[in-house]
Amino acid sequence: MALKVLEKDKFMRESSEWVKYAKDQAERPPRKTGAELISLLKEHGVRNVIDIGCGGGRNSIFLAKEGFDVTGVDFSEVSLGILKNKIKAGKIENIHLLLGEGNKIPVKDRTFDAATCHFVLDLQFGRDEQKTMINEIYRALKPNGVAVLESLFTDKEVEEVRNRLKNAGFILLDDRLSKIISLGEGRSKNDWVFIAEKSKQA
Ligand SMILES: C[S@@+](CC[C@H](N)C(=O)[O-])C[C@H]1O[C@@H](n2cnc3c(N)ncnc32)[C@H](O)[C@@H]1O
Predict the structure, then answer these.
(1) Does 60 contact ligand 1 (Cβ within 6 A)?
(2) Fewer CB atoms < 10 Å away: N or C end of the chain?
(3) 111 lines ligand 1 (CB under 6 A)
C-alpha cells in the first residue's frame, strides 16, 4: 500500500499524463459549490483563503476574481507552473503560490480566514496523511475560520472524514452529497462536501 501511494505521488509530480490531466482540469469551470461558496465566505467575513492542492488553479482563480486574497499550495511543480502562466496571462495580483505538502502546509498557525480543498483528500487515503492534512488545515485557520472540503469518497470514507474533522477540533456546519459518481460495474463514489468551522477559542 505504501509503495502504491508513493507511486501515485510521483505520478502527480512528474508524469506527462498528469501534465495533460492538470491542464485539462485547469480549463474546467470552478466547482458547482462556487457561487454558494462565495456567499458562505462573505457571511464569514473572509478576506484571505488558502487553496490546498490548488492544481492548475480553477478554484483559486475563481476566488481571486471574487476579490479574496488567495494562497495556492500544491506539491506538483507542474500544476503550479500551469497556474503561474494563467496568473501572468490574466495579470492577477491576488494569488500567491507555495510549493509544498498539504500535510505540512508551509504557513504559520492561524493565518487564514478560510481554506478550500477540492479533490485532494481522496488522494490521501491508505495512510495517516489524510488525518495530518485535516489537522494542518485546522492549524492554518484563524479561530472561527471556515474550511470547505470536497472530494470523492465511499460511504465508509465519508464517515471516517467526518470523525477526522471532529477529532481535529472542527465543528461541522454542513456535510452533504453533491453528486454520485458511477465507477461502472455497480460501483460508485460520493462527491461529498464538508463545511467546517474552527472554534472561536482555538
Ligand atoms: C485532482 S487535483 C485537484 C486540483 C484542484 N483542487 C481542482 O479542483 O481543480 C489534485 C491536486 O492535489 C495535489 N496534491 C495531491 N496530494 C497533495 C499533497 N499531499 N500536498 C499538496 N498537494 C497535493 C496534486 O498535485 C493535484 O494538483
Answers:
(1) no
(2) N
(3) no
Q: Where residue 154 sits, what CATH number does that domain have?
A: 3.40.50.150
70 lines ligand 1 (CB under 6 A): no
Entry pTM: 0.88
Ligand 1 atom nearest to CA at 53: 12
Give the chain's domain count.
1
* 134-153 per-position pLDDT tens digit: 999 999 999 999 999 999 88
Range of the domain at 74: 2-125+132-198
Question: DSSP states of 16-85 as a string?
Answer: HHHHHHHHHHHHSPPPTTHHHHHHHHHHTT--EEEEET-TT-HHHHHHHHTT-EEEEEES-HHHHHHHHH
What is the per-residue pLDDT across 96-116, written as a single tens digit (0 to 9) for each?
999 999 999 999 999 999 999
In this structure, which residue's CA is closest to atom 27 in ligand 1?
A: 55
